[in-house]
Specification:
With about 80 residues, the protein is an all-alpha fold. The chain is built from four helices and no strands. The mean pLDDT is about 95.
């Protein structure tokens, strides 16, 4: 599987940043920087679930899991390890 960070970076750049990912790093907060709002988080969750074949529960929709590329990578790796 492709690197989770690269997959999500590409999705965010294409969906929310109109192709300009120059300011998006692994530790950029999506919410604090205004890249993604609460509706955007739902789009991101749907993308992760469909692309990576994982299920994300409501109680997992927290910044510690989904607010940065590095948080998402850690969260997804944990989800995949538990599923495997």
């Amino acid at each position: 599987m492709e690197n989770v960070i690269q997959l999500v970076w590409q999705f965010i750049v294409n969906t929310f940043l109109f192709g300009d990912g120059s300011a998006l790093t692994e530790t950029t907060s999506f919410l604090q920087s205004g890249i993604i709002d609460s509706t955007g988080i739902l789009e991101l969750v749907q993308y992760l679930e469909q692309t990576l074949n994982i299920s994300i529960a409501d109680h997992e929709l927290i910044p510690e899991n989904l607010d940065t590329l590095s948080n998402i990578q850690r969260f997804v790796e944990k989800k995949l390890a538990c599923a495997g």
